[in-house]
Amino acid sequence: MKFTLDWLKDHIDIKISPEEIERDLVNAGLEVESCVNEAAKYEGFVLGQIEEIEKHPDADKLNLCLVNIGAEKMKVVCGAPNVKIGLKVVFAKVGAVIPSTGDVLKPGKIRGIESRGMLCSATELGLGEGHDGIMELETNLPLGSAIAEVLELNNVTFDLSITPNRSDCFSVRGIARELAASQEVELTPLSPKLAGYKEQDIIHPDCEQFYIAHITGVKNKQSPEFIEKRLKAAGMTPKNFLVDITNYLALDLGQPLHIHDASVGVEFSARHARDGEKMTTLKGQDLTLTKDDVVITAQDRPVALAGIMGGIESSVTDSTVDIIVESALFDPIKIALSGRRYNILSESRTRFERGVDPEMVSYAFYKTIEMVLANCGGTVKFIQKKHKKVEEKIVEFHMKTFEKRCGFSLSADRAAEHLMRLGFGVVIRHHEVSEVRRGDPIEVVTTSSRPRHDGVLMITVPSFRHDVEIEEDIVEELLRLEGLEALESQALPLWPVVLEQDENVKQKLINRGLYEVYTWSMLSEKEYALFSKDSPRAIDNPITQNLAVMRPSILPGLLNVAVHNQYKRQNVVGLFEEAKVYSEKSGEQRMIAGLRAGQFNDRTWHEKQRKVDIFDIKADCMSVLPEVKMQLTREAPAYYHPLRSGALKQGKNVLGYFGELHPKIVKEFDIKGPAVGFEVFLDNLPRKNSKVKLPELSSYPSVPRDLCFIMKQNVMAVDVVSEVEKIDRALIHDVSVFDVYELPDGQKSVAFDFYYQSMEKTLSEEEITALTDKIIKMMKDKFDAELRG
Question: Phi, psi (5° rounding) for residue 340?
C-alpha cells in the first residue's frame, strides 16, 4: 500500500522525520518496502529566468537563451516555441538525471554552439502530458530555488507490504493510528456525519449493512489537484471526480464504496445472484453468475459484483448527472470465493476479503455524499439504509500471561494506556477496585503510581481489529508498543544437551556439507505425475495451480531450490529437508531427503573439481541410516536412473532409496549437470528402543581370499554378493568388490575380496579351500562366470 507524508498528516499531527516514521512502522510490525523522497528525483533542477534570447546562427528553429539561475547565468540552446524574455522556467543543470528518460544531462554542442543545461517541459519532468513547449512558472521564490520546492514536489511516498491479518492497516487512517500509538499522540478526530437528510430504513439487502443515496443534478469534473496527486502516488490513474472519490476514500479510510449512474434505475439492493444471470464488469469481463455470488442490483438486475467490481451498465461518465452512492458491508468469505472464481483482483476485494471496519461503512458513505455535493453540486433525493449493530468482542486478559510469555512484567496501568492508544476499551480489575478505560478517543485515567501486576483486563476489541481473539493477541499488541528491545537476553539453564534422533541425523548431513531447506508441501499436478503414478491428494482451494496437490516426495521441492541456486551461479549444490510426504495409499509419512547437483566441490589449488555421482549420495544416505543389517536391491522408483540407483530394505520394509535421478527428471527441472538424490522413510527405521542384534566379534583370525571372475556385463555385483552370503553365513564374514574391468563381447572382469572367519576356531586350509570351491561352483551355476586365470 502506497501513501504520501502529507496524506498521513491529514490524520495525525506528526513532527518526526520520514526515517523515524519508517522506524516506528517497522517496530509496529508493518513491513516498509520503501520510503522515497520525491525531491530526490529533481536534484539538479532549479528555478531560472530567461534574460536574453538570440537566434541560433545555423538553425532557424533554435534560440540561444541566457538563463539567470541566481548564483550564475547559463547559456542554453533551446528549440521550444514559447521561450520569451522574463519567463520563469525549470532549468536542469549538467549532471541532472532527466526523470522521463533516466539520461544524465551532459554538456554538449548543438549546431556548433555550446549548451550547458536544458530548459524542461512537463513531459520531460514526468509531470504530465504537456505541449511541445517548456514549463512556464509563476512564483515569488528566489531564482536558483530547488524546483521540488517551487512545484511542491518534496513529498515523501511510503510503500508498505501489509500482511492479511492486519486489515486495519489497509488505509491511511489505520497506519496513522499505529503511529499515534507509538508516538503517544492523538488521531485527528473524524468530522461528524452529514446531517439534515431524512433516512429510510430498509431490511431486504443480503448483507448486514447497506447504504444508498440518490443524488441528482451533479456535474462530474476533474478531481482537485491534491486528490489526483495522492492517487498517482498510490499507483492509481485519476479519471474524474465521481470515480476518483471512491478510490480515494477506500485508500484513506479503508471502506470501499461505489457510485453508479442512476440512469439504470434508483431501486438498488444487494442479493445473491441467480444461477446463470449475466453481467459485464468495468474491465469488460463477461460473467455468468452463480447463486454463491453476491451482486448489487438496480431494478433487480445485477449491475455490480458486490465488494469486487462494478458493472459497465451502471458506470459513471463525464456526462453523468444522476447518481447512486452505495456503501456496504459484505461477508469476507463470499467476496474471496467470488474473486477467486472469476480471477478478479481489485482494491475493493483486497479490503473486503480481509475484513473492513463495520463502523466505517456509514461514515465513509456520508463523507462521500459531502464531497460530491461540495465538488459536483447536486441534490440528495433520498437516503436508504440497513444497519445491524456490531456485537462487542471482549477478551479477558491476565497480566501474568504477559510476564509468562515475555519474561518481564508490565503494570496493568501501562498496559491499559498502550491498548487505549490503539483504540481498545479497557476495564482494569484489581483485587480492590475496577477502573474503566476507553480507547477512542483516548482517555487516560490517572491512578495510583504504585506498580500493580496482578490485574485482570477486560478488553473491548475495536471493530476494526478482526485479528484480535485471544490473550496471546493482546500480548503481541502490548509487546509491539513496549518495544522488542524490552525483551532481555537470558541464559538458558545448564542442562545436559541430548540430541533427538532426527536432529542427530540432520547434524550428520550438515557435517557432510549439505544445507537444510524448507520447501512447499504442495506442488503442481504436472510435477506430481513425474514422481508418482497414484492418484494425488488434491487441495480443495489451492492458492495457485502450481500448488494444487500434496507432494509424494521431497525431491521436487529440492530440485526447484537447486535450479534457483544454479541460476544464481552456485555450481556446488547440496540440500536436504526433513518433512512429511503424502499419498492415497500410505497416507502421511515422515521422510528425510537429500539432493546434490552439478559439481561436488569447488576448484582449488590442491583438489580437482568433479561432478557429483551415485557414490556421493549413497554415502549421504548411509549416514542417515542406523548401523543395522540391510539389503541393497535395484528396486528404486522410476524417477531414478534405472542402472545407477538402489533401494535399501529390511525384508519387505523399505528404508530408503538413493541414486542418480532419471535424465528426464533432470531435463524437466532444467538442472545443469547430473543430479543425485536419496530418500529415507524415518517411520520405517528401527525405533530407538527396538532391540538390534549387534554383530559378535570373533577372537579367531580372519582369512582373506581374492578371486577374479569373467562374467556378463549385465550381472550385478549386488546379486553376486547376496548369493555368496547364502553359501555359509556363519563362515563368510564379508564380501566386497575392489576392481572392475570391461572386456569385449559384452564381458567384464570383476575382482572380489572374500573374508572367512569362524566364531569357534581357526579355519584350516582344507575348510578355506572347500568354501572357495563352493563360491567358484555357485558363480558358474548361477551367473555363468568363469574364474579368471
Answer: -70, -35
pLDDT 10s digits, 3-56: 999 999 999 999 899 999 999 999 888 999 999 888 888 999 999 999 999 998
Q: 345-349, 494-498, 766-770: lowest mean pLDDT where?
A: 494-498
| Count of CB atoms situated within 10 Å of the CB of 640 | 26
pLDDT digits (tens, 9 = 90+) for 256-283: 999 999 999 999 999 999 999 999 999 9
Distance CA 415, CA 419 (A): 6
Round to whole Å and give the CA distance between 8 and 252. Answer: 9
For residues 203 and 210, give the distance between their C-alpha atoms in angstroms, rounded to a whole number: 9
Q: Which pLDDT score, from 0 to 100, does residue 448 have? A: 33
Reduced to 3 states (helix: H, G, I; strand: E, B; else coil), residue 402 is helix
User: How do residues 692-738 score in pLDDT, each as one tens digit?
Assistant: 455 567 888 999 999 999 999 888 887 898 899 889 988 998 898 88
Query: In one letter, which amino acid is 358?
Result: P
CA max distance for the chain: 121
Q: Are 248 and 231 in contact (CB under 8 A)?
A: yes
- Which amino acid, residue 26? V
Query: Strands, E, within 438-498: which ranges?
Result: 456-461
What is the b/e burial string over 641-656, where b = at least 16 CB atoms within 10 angstroms of the residue's CB?
beebbbbbbeeeebbb
The SS3 of residue 744 is: coil
* Cα 730 to chain centroid, rounded: 61
Q: How far apart are CA 47 and CA 67, in angstroms?
A: 10
Q: How many residues does the chain have?
A: 789
Instruction: Say if CB 775 and CB 712 are below 8 A apart.
Output: no
CA angle 756, 760, 764 (to 5 degrees): 50
The answer on pLDDT for 293 being more than 70 is yes
Number of H helices, E strands in the chain: 19, 38
What are the pLDDT digits (tens) for 238-261? 999 999 999 999 999 999 999 999
Find cell 518534496 and name the residue: 154
The C-alpha cell that represents 449 in the structure block = 503510581
CB 516 within 8 A of CB 576: yes
Contact of 74 with 91, CB cutoff 8 Å: yes
Contact 66, 75 (CB under 8 A): yes
CB contact at 8 A, 255 and 347: no
Assign residue 497 a region (left: φ > 0; alpha: ψ between -120 and 50; beta: otherwise). beta
Sheet order of strands, 747-756 included: 732-743, 747-756, 703-712, 786-787
Geometric angle at alpha carbon 212, from 208 and 218, rounded to 5°: 160
Cα gap 673→246, rounded to integer Å? 55
Structural element, H or E, at residue 250: helix 241-253
Cβ neighbors of 98 (< 8 A, separation 6 or more) are 92, 104, 105, 118, 120, 124
Check residue 131 and give its pLDDT: 61
Question: 352 with 330: CB under 8 angstroms?
Answer: yes
More confident: 112 or 223: 223
Pull the grid cell for residue 781: 551355476
What type of residue is 113?
I
From the list 26, 28, 70, 79, the residue with the least C-alpha distance to 49 is 70
**Cell 549413497 belongs to which residue?**
618
| Peptide bond connecting 642 to the previous residue in cis, omega within 30 degrees of 0 | no
